[in-house]
Amino acid sequence: MGRRRKPKAKTYELEIESLSHEGRGIAHLEEKVIFVSGALPGERVIADRTFSRAKFEEADVKEVLKPADSRITPKCEVFGVCGGCSFQHLSSEDQIDAKGKWLKDAFKGQAKVEPKHWLAPLQVESWGYRRKARLGVRYVAKKEKVLVGFREKKSGFITNMSRCEVLHPSLGDNLEVLAGAIERLSIKSQVPQLEVAVAENNTVLILRHLEPLIAKDEQILLDCANELGVTFYTQSGGEDTVKPLDQAVELTYTHPDHDIEMEFLPTDFTQVNFNLNRKMINLALEMLELNDKDEVIDLFCGLGNFTLPIARHAKHVVGVEGDLGLVERAKHNANKNQITNADFYMADLFKEVEGAPWFRGRTYNKALIDPARSGAIEIVELLPKLGVERLVYVSCNPATLARDSAKLIELGYKLDTAGVMDMFPQTAHVESIALFTK
Fold first, then answer.
1. How far apart are CA 134 and CA 149, in angstroms?
2. Do domains 1-71 and 132-244 have the same CATH topology?
3. Letter string b/e over residues 58-77, b meaning 16 or more CB atoms within 10 A of that residue's CB
């Protein structure tokens, strides 16, 4: 793919009509659609063009001439420059309302359906919630300064930021301390990335480095870790090179309502928002209406985030996941929590699975699926063969949820209930949940 050419400079005055599914204002000018970053419906703005095509253009707000009633002052000093957030100029309540509308539009547009019941939006705190992140690191020689943060919008540059309002405070309040430590390393120009994993009991920072650390570098990092109460791991190559700088630590999070403690590795997928995750699991279990006779299958189960709470309330549950490491962690977590009615299998759920031991000759009356953004069309088509009568679908992409919903309806399921969950406040990311019944 070629690089985006920078268009000729153009500034225009626009009336913003609506909000796109990426959170940009939509206007029309000279038979073109203009997508305007930082603009809200009802506003009149001055905007600078950043991209142009035959039928649409993109622009950034330069000045708001007439602000919307819903506009608020962003909390972060680098909002509009940093690519980590896109919605800080809109209140949390208005953000989730917009996300609910996008989900409704997706259902009506692609599946030609609306749920019988709409759930109240699921929300928790809007700041300091993010426990997983991948931050860029760059040494700027001209300024003799290391930058640590998210990348700028539409740019590969690292945002010059001293703090981050959405990262967990153990890290978000200490970006300058981290940058200062990396600045003192002998290989400061060879550190491109910092991966973050904040558990309930420990914080791990994985330092990606392209050249070996010397003893002095290791001591600098150990001193920084001691100051911040974090643990550094290092990564010199692929994921298999991730190792603790000093001592390994155990990372855990809990489901207190179900008496479960989950262990995970710093590189494992976990939900970024622990408090929302707890509420989401309770909601999913409520929607499944579990009892001690249920046979349940959890597809794309990860390390057992939903599977093990389900096991506390069902006769038996099977979790299926494509990552062997996550399957091993799920089995470990089942043993750790003395759960004996859960089994886990590894399988690529986008390929042929009908001969798998968890599929062949087995039936499950209830199911939960939590796929990646690409959705689960391949496995959705097989649910009737498994005997599934009640399905909870957790989605991070309204478009693929709507597409899969159309297939489920074609297979004889009804869309009973749906709603949005604010897993990523201050961003345009939409997490949703839906209940289908046979």
1. 9
2. yes
3. bbbbeebeeebebbeebebe
Q: Which of 253, 398, 438, 437 is nearest to 337 (CA)?
A: 253
Residues 6+ apart with CB under 8 A from 21: 102, 105, 106, 398, 428
| Alpha carbon 428 to its chain's center | 11
Instruction: Please give the structure tokens belonging to residue 104.
Output: 């409704």
Q: One of 85, 164, 301, 396 is an active-site residue; which one?
A: 396
396 in catalytic set = yes
301 close to 321: Cβ distance less than 8 angstroms: yes
Query: What is the second-level CATH architecture of the domain 1-71?
Result: Beta Barrel (2.40)
Contact between 420 and 430 under an 8 Å Cβ cutoff? The reply is: yes
pTM above 0.85, yes or no: yes
Per-residue pLDDT at 197: 98
Residue 158 has pLDDT above 60, yes or no: yes
Q: Which amino acid is at 219?
A: Q
* For the chain, percent of residues with pLDDT exceeding 70: 99
- Assigned CATH topology for domain 132-244: OB fold (Dihydrolipoamide Acetyltransferase, E2P) (2.40.50)
Does residue 66 sit in helix, strand or coil? strand
> What are the domain boundaries of the chain?
1-71, 96-125+273-437, 132-244
The answer to whether 290 touches 313, Cβ cutoff 8 Å, is yes
Take residue 103 and report the two structure tokens written for it. 């989900």
Output Rg (C-alpha) for the chain, integer angstroms: 24
Which residue bears the tokens 């939960």?
368
Do 128 and 275 touch, CB atoms closer than 8 A?
A: no
Token pair recorded at residue 248: 């390994």
What letter represents residue 105's amino acid? D
Report the helix count and the strand count for the chain, using DSSP H and E: 9, 22
| CA end-to-end span of the chain | 44
* Three-state secondary structure readout of 371-413: CCCCCCHHHHCCHHHHCCCEEEEEECCHHHHHHHHHHHHHCCC
What does the pLDDT look like over 121-133, one tens digit per residue? Answer: 999 999 999 999 9
